[in-house]
């Protein structure tokens, strides 16, 4: 399997490192670490328990410290920063790109921030302040103000001479941006166009003005969608007056896409995306107990439904044996529908215009699945308890619960979204609350009606 | 919320389109569609129910047809292809990049494939055959053989003259690859270096030979990890003899990362990632009923545990009311641990070297959460049923089930992985099977021991 192959490399490094650490030979550990990219070192640090983590952190080349800090989760970052004094932190972060520094700055102690600001030249300090003035998760926060601009009224030769004079370009520069005298964004010229055209070609013949600039207030998720739909490597960011402010690059977008996926996967289990594999026990408890409490509430809701049927249960104990099946399978069916809806919502594919069609489709699927699964369960229940009526009751209850699951799976995520609650996080709780309640109610209710009379 | 903002644009387009379609005005629909990128059109098509989908597909500019086909899921692709005749398909796909064509080719009818191959020139046909000769989900399948190579013994001026002669560069060309006479990969030269250095600079002074080339057999997931860890835009692909075969670009990597995330999210609910929002009912039933059947098996397993305690349940009906709480909350706690482990495994952060430490940490978290949640449940149960012993039983059962959940959450994904079963897909079923069985067993077992004697 691909999954197994994929991280052989990382897992092997981890094992090597772990062995070397256990044997106390720090030389090989240092050599191993310094062959890795900062993101890889970050990943490795996250996989180490606190004691070993500190040892390895101490062996990382100080030049990589800043980049490593950018590439670890918030909790691990805090634990790494706790091991550094002010001078070390300042040295680590002062060479970072503005967008990375902006990302990091809020986790730094105030005294460190002051020192970092003091160590920067005025231009960079102003740029950092500008980036920090935009809300988190917007284009303004993701952009790097370091862009290369040219005028439209020159030719390729002038631009090449300018670039040779300028020297190194910022990372991921695939385009130069063409701006007006007032620094308004006019379009872009690719390096590929520059190197494939004659010196005498005027820049305005090479301008691509089709790519719209990104608005500084655009949400990070919309930025990610545009990058992946248009296959961009970088994109210009402008303000309301079309003044060029900076540039977003694909590496940050890849991080956003990864974070979104993590947020969905962890959020669905009520976990904070910053929870560290080795979070201190206290912290892990705090992070998880709230979610368990919410689920406890819905569990008691379901129990109270069962409580209404104590008399029935006392008379027919088989009902107690079978009732979790009705609730459980209904929950699974509901989560399937929910998962499809959450994906559809995340891709913008589901809205008021097609909700009714989806509901109708899912009800039909539920009826057929209900008949199939209900039939199987009915047969097994008959073999077990030899009561044909009980089999009919459980089959009917399953069909009803599958329909409830379909309705809840389609409608609740839409409702949650309208209430500004993330359906990827809260969806499972509310959908399974419905299928639990409906499952117990239909099964025990039908049993009371049919079996007790 | 960001999620709500993000797809305002897509949702708005969908609404506009839907309204225009309903009113039968196809002119505005066509104009709207042709302002979109192929990936956006694909997304829109996926969000339309079959009837409307065909109408809109008919309005897409034939020039975009191929790219749109690349950007939709397999099920939708099939429905779109079904609307086209052979000539249309050949015209749509013949201008695609080799890697995109390779991706598509398996969904095409055999007669169409023959026509497509006939329409290609020999060089491209050989390239396509080469790409198709590598297994799916490997670097060989992702690469595009269209690369720009230079020799090390020339200078910038020669390269620039060569590029001007050559004209347009392949998309996402940020580096030229330096090869030996035998086409062995020696290193890369960035376009940024070319445009910032004097004409007379020898290429071998600009070579970056630090980036390792990707092996053609590398898994797609490992490729994605390397791209995101190293912030690459493109990377060279070589065979065992270091002969340069092609190039992988970031746009394909972004697709892999998105697909991985989808696979995890949908797989956890037992859904096929190709399931279309508007899959025909029959197909949706077939896709989901297997998963429900597997879950049915574990539900009956849990029921059979309850069946062992019929006598106890008959005597104390309150047990039937409360037992789903023990199983349900245990399941939630188990899924939290499982989710952390699945993430750790996917990142290569979890292995034999730290499993024991993680297990011990999770057991401690489980004990504390068990005491907290068990305490709360015990108190509520006392208020409800006025039996102190019953409260003790349920609190104890919860603590035990939290510990079982922690152990199952840590150990089962490791075991599944060793058995080459994807823990992201199968994990929830097996972990909740454990928490259901243990929940019912501990609660009813303790009740039998403590309350009946």
From TrEMBL, chains A, B:
Its main location: membrane. Keywords: CBS domain, Cell membrane, Magnesium, Membrane, Metal-binding, Transmembrane, Transmembrane helix, Transport. Belongs to the SLC41A transporter family. PANTHER family: MAGNESIUM TRANSPORTER MGTE (PTHR43773). Acts as a magnesium transporter. Homodimer. This is Magnesium transporter MgtE. It comes from Pseudoxanthomonas suwonensis.
